[in-house]
Amino acid sequence: MRAIAHARAVVPTTGAQRSSPRARVAATPRRAGRTSVTSSPPRTGNLGVPVAARAAPLKSRRAIVVLNAAADVPSSSSTDAKGAVSVGALVLALGVAMLLASADRTIFAAAALGIKSELGMSMRDVATAQSAFLWGYGVTQLAAGAASDRFGGARTLLGGLFAWSLAIAATPLSAMASAPTTALAVSRFMFGAASGCALPASAAAVAAHVPPERRSGALSAIFAMFNCGSAFGLAAAGGLIATFGWKMIFYGFGVVGAVWAIGAWAAMPESVKTWRAPESSKKDIVVDENGEEMTDLSPEIVTQLLALLWCHVVVNWGFMILQSWLPIYLANDLGMSISSSGVIGALPWLFTAFMSFSSGQVADKLIARGMERWKVRRLAMNVATIGPALGLFALKFTSTPAVALACIIATTGLQACSVAGYHSYLQDIAPSRAGAILGFTNTVGVAASIFANIVTGASVEATGAFSETFMLTAAMYASSCLVWNYFLKGKVLFP
After folding, report:
1. Which of 204, 217, 254, 273 is the most buried (most CB within 10 A)?
2. Dist. CA 188–CA 131, nearest whole Å
3. Cα–Cα distance between 155 and 226 in angstroms, integer?
4. Can you state the angle between helices 246-267 and 153-170, rounded to 10 degrees?
5. DSSP secondary structure string, 201-259?
6. pLDDT digits (tens, 9 = 90+) for 240-255
7. Strand order in 11-12's β-sheet?
8. SUPFAM superfamilies, per this entry (predicted)?
């Protein structure tokens, strides 16, 4: 292979990790008659462990070389005072968009019984409407992830916010249709399709514009606002529906979302507006030492991705059930009124927002004190899986409203630690493809959520209670904990 190249090899500083035979080579223009291999500047190794960089000989038995059309492009993030302000503004803009994404989901849950009564729907019809949102949400995950990585997460998220706000504002029009139940399902599908960009776009934006040492904090702040949206939506919807009816809540939230999307994009700095994916991340070719192309998806990488996939399925399953059915559970199983269930149902999401933010701050501090990133992520995921499993298991054996509410608050709050676990881990092991991978895992996770909503609706209609659904979800959380601890130990998949 004749090219001038820069070779890098990961050389651990601890005995526990062995040096890798793999080298990453960035191709540069060829000079006649010369071939050289030089070392890269010092860099950080797997998940934050300092490593030395040195020239890597291409003599290994199975060396893997990655040729790029352009050299690696450094992060556009800055850690100076000006950079800190821009990161804060970015987090605020994305955080409010995520808050509205969550609020727009929960207002339907708060209005569901009123819509059910006015349109003459059954509980299965309500489940179908919930699932229609998820069908739309899942359809656009892969495309949204790819678009976020290529065109920028901020652009994709705010564009999506504008589109889904229009769909939310159009929801009440379904009551005027000749087939209102079908029209409602269509409007929910459109809302889901437009909001499918929320998670992959926010992940891609943080990966592109926030320094690695601040990503846990940035993600935790964004997801804290996302969870505040659930609380805000439920609390606002209960009173507004009782006063103005369920239609007005959709009109109001639709207008607010569209206005924020336009204003936030107008206020974005030019560096965010003009951002495009570096050429090196779009033209990677993997070859062996003989110049023959190889695939990135080795069996080891596939195993890691499948483990991540299952853990994300469980995160989605548990979260979607709680977000979609909590007000109905409070009214159906605990006998609360619609208005009170909306206000009380906001309490778990306020605690969730607190835990989401706090877990990210604690994670950043642990990393700053020298704890390896993958171990911090593992700790967060243990809390995010064992805690909810115990909380949901306890719900099986109580019908006391105060105890049940405490279990729900603990469950929703502790599962929020997955932000400092799963979502931050993905930034660590695949920063160049965080949006695409999250889009893939979230697609399957959404499909599982659709099934979860259908199963929940059928189970509640058959048994009159949520206990069986809670037990199944608790078992899934326990399995996720086992999978994470066995398979996911910080190996970088896509630098």
Report:
1. 204
2. 9
3. 18
4. 160
5. HHHHHHHHHS-GGGHHHHHHHHHHHHHHHHHHHHHHHHHHHHHH-HHHHHHHHHHHHHH
6. 888 888 889 999 999 9
7. 11-12, 50-52, 43-44
8. MFS general substrate transporter (SSF103473)
- Whole-model pTM: value is 0.64
Which stretch of DSSP H or E encloses residue 372? none
Annotated domain spans of the chain: 4-67, 81-487
Beta-carbon contacts of residue 244 (< 8 Å; ≥ 6 apart): none
Q: What pLDDT shows up at residue 165?
A: 96
CA distance linking residue 127 with residue 393, whole number of Å: 23
Across the range 425-454, mean pLDDT stands at 82
First to last CA, the chain: 23
- Both tokens assigned to 108: 């339907």
- The 3-state DSSP class for residue 21 equals coil
Closest Cα to residue 232, out of 398, 52, 386, 353?
353
Q: Give the whole-angstrom CA distance, residue 352 versus residue 342.
A: 16
Give the residue among 361, 320, 365, 307 at the shortest CA–CA distance from 491.
307
Arch. (CATH architecture) of 81-487: Up-down Bundle (1.20)
Question: Are 476 and 317 contacting, i.e. CB atoms less than 8 angstroms apart?
Answer: yes
Classified as helix, coil or strand, 461 is helix
